[in-house]
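Incident log, entry 3
Record: Acyl-CoA dehydrogenase (385 residues)
Problem: checksum mismatch between cached and fresh output.
Input:
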Amino acid sequence: MREAVIVEAVRTAVGKRNGGLSGMHAADLSAVVLGALVERTGIDPEVVDDVIWGCVSQVGDQSSNVGRYAVLAAGWPESIPGTTVNRACGSSQQALDFAAQAVMSGQQDVVVAGGVEVMSRVPLGAARSTGMPYGPQVLTRYQDFSFNQGISAEKIARKWGFARERLDAFSALSHERAAAARDAGAFEAQITAVSTEGATTVTLDEGIRRGTSVETLAKLRPAFTEDGVIHAGNASQISDGAAALLVTTPRKARELGLTPLVRYRAGVVTGSDPVLMLTGPILATEKVLRKTGVGLPEVGVFEVNEAFAPVPLAWLAETGADPALLNPLGGAIALGHPLGASGAVLMTRMVHHMRDHGIRYGLQTMCEGGGTANATLVELVSPAS
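Fresh output:
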């Protein structure tokens, strides 16, 4: 089977709700990162076999195959197809897996994977506003559970014994790490500027709150239950953003004059308890490491999406990974979680971090609504390989 490599990874800054990117249509925001791929690699879009695009709330501005309209908005040839996938928060991570699988199988040679979500324009839960997606048989099976992720996060916190102060300390650290990363210029090479209709250029992630502490977070009220531990400060932020990855084979990369960043080693997806819902990354991590034969101590960076603070903390408790290697640049609590874009955003962050620090293996995993999770392992490609 052929190898798949990522030769470029680019993202927009992540905008906060009603922030700098809120006026952008999802297709137009997607076009920004597609254009950046072409500019950075020098490829002719004609070589792209497909564009696989993640998006969660596929209604309104994001309906009717936003992946296809992203291609057209970018000015690419009409012959270039595009499709939109939805695996909840892991949508663009799944898009990467699909792209790699297409390349490795020999069916396609050059595929763009990525995603978008403009939550300011298409609010969280908009797709459910006109109906019940679960159906009576699912509700009966799970005793009429609401499938509310916030309630699931509360259940995880109770099961693993995480007090609110522990969750808030993790959240404060996320902001601290994100601020330090931005100050050090860690995000500059991966972010492409977005010029909005108001002549504003967005280049910085907007969710970082300097000085966040356990004491400041203690002032926030629980969001889901009166005596709960989950609140706005230890949960991911509602955000806007897009990201794109160019996937091909080593041979095709050489033909195009491109240097691979990382080698795609494996991607897996797993199901888990849909009531706890957000614990899938634990199983997915075990599965991808078993599939590749790579040991946990060999991995130099982990990106575990911070949907809620209990999620990466439970993952850490169960895997025994080094906490210093978990989300070293901050996570969604500080940097935001633009749903369908987040998988590609995390991979972009991780790939650039691996290159900047010479890290051989990186592992990314994402919890997802309904109790599924993706995990992807990539390996740094040295210049000589």
